Amino acid sequence: MKITAIRAFPCWVGIRTQLLVKVETDEGIFGWGESGLTGREKAVVGALEHFAELIVGMDPFNIGGIWQKLYRSQYFEGGRVLAAAQSAIDIALYDIKGKALGVPVYQLLGGKQRNHIPTFATTSGEPNEAMIEQAQMLIDHGWTAMRLSPSGHDETTYEPREHIATTAKWCTKAREVLGDDVVLGVDYHHRLSVAEAASFCQKMPRGTLDFLEEPIRDETPEAYESLRRMTDIPFAIGEEFASSGSSCPSSSAISTSITASTSAMSAG
Predict the structure, then answer these.
(1) Which CATH superfamily is domain 3-108 in?
(2) Which superfamily does CATH assign the domain made up of 121-257 to?
(3) Alpha-carbon torsion, ordered 207, 210, 214, 217, to 10 deg
(4) Confidence (pLDDT) at 238
């Protein structure tokens, strides 16, 4: 079996853009992958065109070898765009291999390890009474964990200081109303500085939040070490990290940043 083509399909799915990637073979078996780099699909399409020149004609079963070729064959390796293109191809190759062998992909990755996966829901409204009502509705429907949205999260230009106090106030109110059993977190989409994130955490009683997702950007992983010293709220981080030197945190940064967390939560 040989790879014959890589085709990219930018599209709109649900509430965001996505890039679906199809890898075709000479035996008619094809696989689907997805790049995950929402908002930069055209850049990933360009990377896929480069990668196609390298791997068309290769055996799609050699997934590890293809990954190494894509990552190491050029002077500039890694980076979010290239890593997104590699990831989409990687997923598609596993899809091809699973179809060819007649087994689900999880059997290629060590077999099934659990029967249930805990998930969480996300409220969509601004922090106010409506947000708490929506959260209560989610609890009534069986959700035991949820991610609240910060104030001003839909604004194109975000001014953290205009919204930190409001978000902290309604997170505190949500905990009071919803009780201690539900898992509560907030996703800041890395819009805060270290000082702003610390200020936000300090405005709430201890135990208000079970996790704080992506409070700051990952360009300087040591920043998470600094923030960890300012709050004991567990961090949910990782979706910005890619396989490149500047974007991949040191192991000490990761271990320090998730200290006090018994289970890390992360979502897009």
Answers:
(1) Enolase-like, N-terminal domain (3.30.390.10)
(2) Enolase-like C-terminal domain (3.20.20.120)
(3) 40
(4) 81
Element (H, E) at 22: strand 16-25
d(CA 180, CA 205): 13
Long-range Cβ contact pairs of 60-66 (< 8 A, separation 24 or more): 60/1, 60/2, 60/3, 60/23, 60/25, 60/31, 60/93, 60/96, 60/97, 61/1, 61/97, 61/100, 63/90, 63/93, 63/94, 63/97, 66/90, 66/93
- Give the pairing type, strands 16-25 and 30-34: antiparallel
Q: Which residues of 89-127 are buried (b: 16+ CB within 10 A; e: fewer)?
A: bbbbbbbbbbeeeeeeeeeeeeeeeeeeeeebbebeebb
More confident residue, 77 or 185: 185
What confidence score (pLDDT) does residue 248 get? Answer: 42
* Beta carbons of 223 and 249 less than 8 angstroms apart: no
Task: Give the pLDDT confidence of 205-235 residue by residue, as tens digits.
Answer: 999 999 999 999 887 778 999 999 999 999 9
Q: Where are the domains of the chain?
A: 3-108, 121-257
Within 10 A of 243 (CB to CB), how many other CB atoms are there? 16
How many angstroms separate the most distant Cα atoms in the chain?
61
CB 22 within 8 A of CB 9: yes
- pTM as predicted: 0.79
